[in-house]
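Allow me, if you will, to draw on your knowledge of protein folds for a short while. I have a record of one protein: its chain in single-letter code and its fold written as discrete structure tokens. I should value your view on which stretches of the chain appear to form regular backbone elements. Thank you for your consideration; the sequence and its tokens are set out here:
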Amino acid sequence: MPRTLTLNTRQMIAAVKALEGEELNPRTLSAWAQMEIAVPSVAWERRRGRHNPRIYSLADLARIRLVVRLRKAGLSMPRARAVLAYLSRELHEVLRAKTQAVLIVEGWRGAIVHRPGNPDLEVPSGQYRLPLADVVKGNIEAAKEALKAA
């Protein structure tokens, strides 16, 4: 059985830097976990400090990449959070490896998720177009590189 790729905080930061060119601060990841924006799904005891490590999955990496891209596009954290909550609740399948879904953020009017063959779904929240496959592409390779560097 293949070993599941998991990343600690340092490795997650390295993977995001390699894929997005953004250097995240460990405190940023901690704050996002506390605010339930990007919660580590493998291990996290909701405590602070190095003796309570956060362990992330590839799905967590995709979510963090999406947060980074939404923030780069100028969305406020409350609006990004609303989009993420909707995707998690209603469309959890869109952050999978071969998704063709595209997230279109339209200023103050809201956001739309476009999936080929399905009607567009309006996200109650924030035009920024983001192919959701882009936040999944390269994650395995970047995670492996981050593991090697550790």
